[in-house]
Amino acid sequence: MSSYEARFKVWRGDVAGGGLEDFGIEVNDGEVVLDIIHRIQATQAPDLAVRWNCKAGKCGSCSAEINGRPRLLCMTRMSVFMREETITVTPLRAFPVIRDLVTDVGFNYAKAREVPAFVPPDGLGPGEYRMMQEDVDRSQEFRKCIECFLCQDTCHVVRDHEENKTAFAGPRFLMRVAELDMHPLDAAEESGLDRKKTAQDEHGLGYCNITKCCTEVCPESIKITDNALIPLKERAVDRKYDPLVWLGSKIRRRPSGPA
Amino acid sequence: MSVVDRQEWDVVVVGAGGAGLRAAIEARERGARTAVICKSLFGKAHTVMAEGGIAAAMGNVNSGDNWQVHFRDTLRGGKFLNQWRMAELHAQEAPDRVWELETWGALFDRTSDGRISQRNFGGHEYPRLAHVGDRTGLELIRTLQQKIVSLQQEDFKETGDYESRLKVYQECTVTRIMKEGSRVSGAFCYERESGRFFVLEAPSVVVSTGGIGKSFKVTSNSWEYTGDGHALALLAGAPLLNMEFVQFHPTGMVWPPSVKGILVTESVRGDGGVLRNSEGERFMFDYIPDVFKEKYAQSEEEGDRWYEDPDHNRRPPELLPRDEVARAINSEVKAGRGSPHGGVFLDVSTRMPADVIRRRLPSMYHQFKELADVDITAEAMEVGPTCHYVMGGIAVESDTAAARGVPGLFAAGEVAGGMHGSNRLGGNSLSDLLVFGRRAGLHAARYAAGLTGLTGERPLVDDVQVDTAAAEALRPFSAEGPVAGVEDSRPPENPYTLHQELQQAMNDLVGIIRREAEMETALEKLADLRVRARRAGVEGHRQFNPGWHLALDLRNMLLVSECVARAALERTESRGGHTREDHPAMDRAWRRINLLCQLTDPTGGLAATDPVHGQIDLVRETTEPIRPDLLALFEKEELVKYLAEEELYE
Amino acid sequence: MKSGGVRNGTRAAITAPHLRTDRWWLAPAMTAAGLLAFVVYSTWRAFSNTDYYAAPYVSPFYSPCLAENCEPMRNGPNWEVFGSWWGLSPALIVLIFPLGFRLTCYYYRKAYYRGFWASPPACAVAEPHKKYSGETRFPLILQNIHRYFFYAAVPVAGILTYDTVLSFRDEHYAWGHMGLGTLVFVVNIVLIWAYTLSCHSCRHIIGGKLKHFSKHPVRYRAWQLVGRLNDRHMLLAWASLVSVALADFYVYLVASGAFDDPTFF
């Protein structure tokens, strides 16, 4: 097994301030960045704060930025870097910092609460749900989301514009709206809730300019932009900008039901 | 002592995994004001790691399935040591719990007629596991999380406050359960982010903190699994049951070292993956124990036919219960037929086309691709046993999930003992979380309601207990350093070092194969670590300080490790997740024996105990006989293999 | 209200607008250069009003040709919808449709928002703008009419298909011949169709809007096919952009006499 000494710069500090701190640290074969952060913790900086949990890319806790790119610490192998390269690790830069690599991701939990939940269909009891695989495929892709919030972090709408945080739910939660709108048994529409419309009016779908950074960073390789955001935009167009649909719904005097 | 913030709730749930969230949902729906407190962020609990599925006898794929068959499989898997009433309730209620998830928005994989698809798994007679690819745990946790959010949305509409009736305290740790007399009165907690202490006052506390895997070096468990709930219950005076039974999952990754232990789901075998040694032999055929001889294929041809025609063929031995497979792999490696990195080969690449593998095992494909640079569609995986689950846990009443001896304390999920006996079947964990999580929430809410009426009186949190708990939690900041002029005085211990030593000791000495002398050594090592842990010191301040958190968790890991070692030393037989090299056979006389661990110091103190004797007392207890109608589900010939003579003729 | 981006007071104190060490600027720079080159070329060709017809080939920039000042093309798509009052290049009448289609295309939007407007220049690289309202307001809210440009793009592609059929004639309008230009036209029209059908709006109309695929098996199949094309939408966008420019350039070369169209048969 070959090991070498790598150079790391890790951001340390809190909301009052801080900076990049240098570390020289041993790296062994097959290790990931999180292993190195842990080694720094165990040998050089026992109070270095880092959020992590499963260490297998399944929980989405250890989100940070490595050489300026939003990534999971546990899924970034050291072998992708040159040995002589200095590796810079910082906390997510779209959210308020708490300490060292830990940020306050409360924004995401607040946004999660603003998306109306699944509406169960009337007249179907537990055990009576029948859904075909091809009808659940789309929403299942979105439910692979591990809520690492890397997409929320990289999205320039909020990353570069703090003031947009109130109006914009971010890719993860717009995708949640898409997931529910594509759920074959979601009865939101029957209950008077138009998810297509609220996506635009309440969750800020229009802020998205489909520049696809969310898709680029997704560790689950969910095609957020092509499969969730753009289809959602198209669904909003159906509702708001398509005169034919508008006319049709006027003539038939009812909103067009689920196809 | 500074004034500690107090908040009043009806039910406090410790842990936000499947069991905790299900308990919280139930308690809130029963009208209890409920707080959930968890060490990680909301939605990150260890449940997300579960891959295979939720076992529930819905009979969607094979209509021959029903709760009786599920019950039978569970008891066989647990080698008849299960708390049978729990196994019965579990088998009966699991389907309802799964269907209920659908009404909350879960999207399971479907059968061709639109029902929930079910897959085969080790030890289950029929395809029984409701699943979503190989990320079922994520689906479960996300569904429960979203259900909680939907309840909060309802509360918001009514009260203007999302958290008026159901609140999640994320990234907080409970260090002590508070009591008034024998009854639970609340929980002492700290916020990891700020280090701030606070007390949640509540007559009911549901413990659902999961397992203990972080006491072992090679484990599939995350950092959270430090046995907190086990220790909290012990310290509150509740006994732990059968802690010697620790499940080593047969297939964990063995390479590279940094991911050693990470789970390779059993679905790989359920979907056709086979185990081979370095000689290319499917060795599992040599390891079918007598009790399972009639149930498993005797030839590779028959085993292969079973995937297509399960009604006329027996299943391949790769799908034996986990303890059998783990032991077999261990033996093969020991006999020198292991893979280059000390495991065996698990191969799907020669069994299924690449696109089928990628579709059915997407996370496994990614896990190996990204962590080990192995393409499982082209080459075999290297796997070996990894500490996965503890069957032992808090002793509970089967119907109510109430911990024994401590009114107001409830336990559900992995932290509760009894349900799985000596070995858990894959898929029975997620259903356990839902069935008993719901029951714990229900009874916790009822119990709390009984104390909030006119006659009832809520127990109070005592200031002295709060101060003691705060002092205990702050101890690592004032660890004794070297004292000038005093001989033998040493610098504070590094908690990371202590943790590594503990993991190594448990792995080597109380691991998958156990020997008397080694376990005695382990107990000595634990005593030494316990003394040193009292001097574990940390630098820095209380804000998100991982060294401090670990120093506090060490107390729990040491307590739980001692329980495992003591119980393992006591049980002189091999059964399920407990294998003794010096007592290799299962002993029918032990079937009726439960081992209960209790704190030596009944006041819950830790300081005064003698380092050699340790902190744990063991009590033997004879189990209640299995109800005759349940016994009648088995053939007599099968029962004689498990039950003691006198049980058979009672 | 708090404002600002990565240097906002609550965020980790890092002064650099980004810490990326790779060549993140390369992709937006190449995109900008590529688009700019096309804009310059197509502007020149659209306004030039010459050398766009060399029997049997008509430049895709000038088809259909709808003014009286169009060059006569036998059987070609030139109808004098616009009378003699139209004095500008007839390309301008028609080009608005493919131009609008591409301008509102979800891929091109990404490309020019990144390449020209630096919003953002690359992922996790701070953008230079103080304010950002995305596509919520005029004029960018008009991006939502992409679907109508798709509706318009389909007949345009149909006419270009017709032109391609006509290109199987020789310069004397005799059928059954094929030159290098015919090949250029065939390749171009295949790419145009692939790009047009791989459009996100098309994917939505074909099947994406449905809630239950299981009740519409044919549209489901079609949606899957369009989805497969849609995966390559970016590639098709560039390929068809280049091919349409090449097809025009080929006609220019032949019409201006700089090149003689080699015939295969």
Mean pLDDT of chain A: 93
Into how many domains do the coordinates of chain B divide? 2
By DSSP (H or I, 4+ residues per run), the number of helices of chain A equals 10
Structural class of chain A: alpha+beta
Which architecture of the largest domain in chain B would the CATH scheme give at its second level? 3-Layer(bba) Sandwich
Bin the helical content of chain B. 25-40%
Oligomer description: heterotrimer
Mean pLDDT of chain B: 92
Strand fraction band of chain B? 5-15%
List its salient traits:
heterotrimer; B: 650 residues; alpha/beta; FAD/NAD(P)-binding domain; Flavocytochrome C3, Chain A, domain 1; 2 domains; five-stranded parallel sheet; 18 helices; 15% strand; C: 265 residues; mainly alpha; two-stranded antiparallel ribbon; 4 strands; 5% strand
What does this structure look like?
Chain A has 259 residues and is of the alpha+beta class. In chain A, 34% of the residues lie in helices and 15% in strands. In chain A, the strands form 2 sheets. In chain A, strands 2-1-5-3-4 form a 5-stranded mixed β-sheet. In chain A, strands 6-7 form a two-stranded antiparallel ribbon. In chain A, a hairpin with a 2-residue loop joins strand 6 (97-99) and strand 7 (102-103). In chain A, helix 3 (133-142) packs antiparallel against helix 6 (171-182) and helix 7 (195-201) crosses helix 9. Chain A is elongated and about 70 Å long. Mean pLDDT of chain A is 93; it is low at 255-259. Chain B folds into 2 domains: 1-245 and 391-634 and 643-650, FAD/NAD(P)-binding domain; 248-385, Flavocytochrome C3, Chain A, domain 1, CATH 3.90.700. In chain B, 35% of the residues lie in helices and 15% in strands. With 265 residues, chain C is mainly alpha-helical. In chain C, strands 1-2 form a two-stranded antiparallel sheet. A two-stranded parallel ribbon of chain C has the order 3-4. The interface between A and B is large, with 61 and 70 residues.
